[in-house]
Amino acid sequence: SSYYPLELMVGRHATDHNDLAFLFYVSLSFLALLTYLKTPKTKWTLAIGLCVGLAVLVKWLVGLVAIGVWVIVVLTSINSNKNSLVRILKHVALASLVALLVFIPWQIYTFYAFPTEAQIEMSYNSAHFFNSLEGHAEPWWYYFGSGLRRVYGKSLITRALLGASLLIYFIKARRNIPSRVALVSIAIIYLFFTVAQTKMAGFVAVVMPFVLIGIAILFTEMYEKVKARFQTNKYLKPAAMFLFSILVLFNFQFKNIQRNHTSNGRTGVTMRSEKLDELALFTKMRNELGNEHYVVFNLRSTKFGYVSAMFHTSYTVYRTLPSHKTLKSLHNEGYKIAIIDNGDLDESISNLKWIRVIKG
Q1: Which of 207, 209, 210 is CA-nearest to residue 179?
Q2: How far, in Å, CA of 199 to CA of 147, rounded?
Q3: Can you give the pTM of this predicted structure?
Q4: In this structure, which long-range contacts are made by residues 186-194, counting pairs with CB atoms below 8 Å and at least 24 apart in sequence?
Q5: Which one of 101, 150, 245, 355 is most buried, by most CB atoms within 10 A?
C-alpha cells in the first residue's frame, strides 16, 4: 500500500535523486554482504568496500551502515570461533580500506580545491545531526508516526504487516544470518535518524527493501503452512490470490492516485500539466533570448520554477520582480535583463526598451 518508492522515482518528493542513488548503493552493499556471508570470498569483500564507498559519496558516513552491520553480526554470531572471527575481521578491514580508497580522494580534492566551501559543507552535514535544519524539526517519534505513514501507508493492516515482518526477523535472527542482518540494519537506521535532529521521511527509506522482504516472507510462510494442511485442495491457490487481491484493494490509496496523477484535488504538489507548461516556457525563453547571458526576473510558473529554469537554461533566474530603481542600476552595470510577463506586469516596466519581455 506504499506509493513512496514510485513517487520518489518520479521526483514527487524532495531529495529524490540522492535518496534513490543512496538506496541503490546501500542495497548493493547489503547484497554483496549477504553474498559474502553465504560464500566468504575476497571478491565479495572488495564488492562490499566498493559499494560502501560509493554510498558514502552520496550521503556521507551513513553509507558505512553495511560495514557496521557486518561487524555487529560477526560479533553476535553464536558459531564464530576465534580463528574464523579474526579472519572475518580482516575481511572487514579490507572492505573498509577499499571504501576509504573510493571516497577519500574526493574529500581531499574538495578541501584542496575549495577549502572554504568544503569546510562549510562538512559543517553543514554534521549540523543535520545536532540541529533541526530547513524546517525539518519533528518529534523523536516521527519515524514511528507520520513518517511511517508517509513511507508505508496509513492503513492499520499495513502497520500490522510491518510489525509482523519485524517479528519474523526477530524470531529467525538467532539462527538465520540474513534475518539478523535485516533486523540489525533496520534497528541501526531507525535509531540513528531518531536521535538525529533533522528528520525527513526519505532518510529511513534505505531499509525499506528489508521491510518489504520481511512482509513477503510472512506471506510465503503463511501460505506454506496452509498448503501443508490442505495439500489436496485445488482451490487453495485461487483462494490465496483472491484474499491477496482483496488486501491490496483494501489498501489502495485512491486519494494519492488522484492527487499525484490527475488534475483534480489540487495540492501543494505541482501537477504534471503545469510542469509541461513550464518546460514550454523554458523553450520559449531560449528561443527569444538565445545564448546570451540574461538575468531573468518574475518567473512564477511554479513554486520552484526559477530553480528548474537555471537547470534547463543558461540564464540567472529569479522568482521576484525588483524595483524600477534596481532594474535601472543593473542595466547601468551592463546586465542584460529579461522579465516574464504573467499578465500583471506594469507598463512602466514593460515599455522600457532595454528590457526583454517574455509572455508567461
Answers
A1: 210
A2: 9
A3: 0.74
A4: 186/210, 186/211, 188/65, 188/68, 188/69, 188/72, 189/65, 190/143, 192/62, 193/143, 194/140, 194/141, 194/142, 194/143
A5: 150
- Which three cell numbers, joined as nine digits, stand for 258? 488522484
Give the three cell numbers for residue 64.
Answer: 558505512
Q: Are 67 and 102 in contact (CB under 8 A)?
A: no
